[in-house]
UniProtKB/TrEMBL annotation:
It holds the Pfam family Acetyltransf_3. Residues 16-181 form the N-acetyltransferase domain. It comes from Brevibacterium marinum. This is RimJ/RimL family protein N-acetyltransferase. InterPro entries: Acyl_CoA_acyltransferase, GNAT_dom, N-acetyltransferase. PROSITE patterns: GNAT. Belongs to the acetyltransferase family. RimJ subfamily. Keywords: Acyltransferase, Transferase. Signal peptide: none annotated. Transmembrane segments: none annotated. One of its GO terms (molecular function) is acyltransferase activity, transferring groups other than amino-acyl groups. It comes from the Bacteria. The lineage of its organism: Bacteria, Bacillati, Actinomycetota, Actinomycetes, Micrococcales. The keyword Aminoacyl-tRNA synthetase does not apply.
Length: 183
């Protein structure tokens, strides 16, 4: 999949800017990896070492050129410090479909970063030609993520059976969705 170019202006919303993941974000990756759930959602191992963190950063930097999607550090618009990570995944762009994911470091939670990051990510999504819908797969127990989704304009569509997670296991998840404005 050939994706549109990396945005020349970093997406932002409120106090959040979405920028490329960089080697300086290894500390953020290591902190995220201490969350028991985050390692189940991607390739970051639990309790990552510095080497694990740097390898994760390198993988994120390759996501765009390999056609997987846009992997962003969620950073403070003031200090540029990374507080988390999000991605817009576009392997099904030919069908008009994208999926998104997000995670905030434990010590930066409940400060509005996730909602602002998801708003910035979603608005950025509508700059991608052909993208009609963005979908989130959220565990039924994950109230924080469901509230984040609703605050960012997503609504719950259905209960999706057998969503595959990072380790190959399948889980039943809630499917939240937003449609391109005017589509
Ligand atoms: C889900 C997550 C991203 C939320 O990040 P956050 O920056 O704390 O979220 P925000 O501060 O933007 O708050 C968003 C909403 O969630 C609510 N919320 C946040 N943490 C909550 C919690 N522990 N319990 C209940 N509600 C919570 C907030 O109150 C807010 O809702 P409101 O505006 O209706 O009150 C964060 O908890 C996280 O990284 N979890 C682990 C990874 C994960 O689950 N990612 C999502 C996968 S689908």
């Amino acid at each position: 999949m050939i994706l549109p170019p990396w945005p020349s202006t970093p997406p932002r919303h409120g106090p959040v800017v979405l920028r490329e993941v960089a080697p300086k974000d290894v500390a953020m990756a290591r902190e995220l990896s201490t969350d028991p759930y985050v390692p189940q959602t991607g390739s970051l191992p639990f309790d990552a070492s510095s080497e694990d963190g740097l390898a994760w950063v390198t993988r994120q930097q390759g996501r765009h050129s390999e056609g997987a999607g846009f992997s962003f550090a969620i950073a403070s618009a003031v200090s540029d410090e990374a507080v988390g990570h999000c991605g817009l995944w576009l392997k099904s762009l030919d069908d008009g479909l994208g999926t998104a994911g997000y995670a905030i470091n434990p010590r930066h939670r409940r400060l509005g970063y996730a909602v602002n990051a998801l708003r910035a990510l979603t608005d950025f999504g509508w700059t991608v030609p052909g993208l009609l819908r963005i979908v989130l797969h959220i565990e039924p127990w994950n109230i924080a993520s469901q509230r984040t989704a609703r605050r960012a304009g997503y609504s719950s569509q259905k209960f999706g059976v057998g969503h595959r997670i990072a380790n190959g296991e399948t889980r039943d998840m809630l499917v939240y969705e937003v449609v391109r404005p005017g589509a």
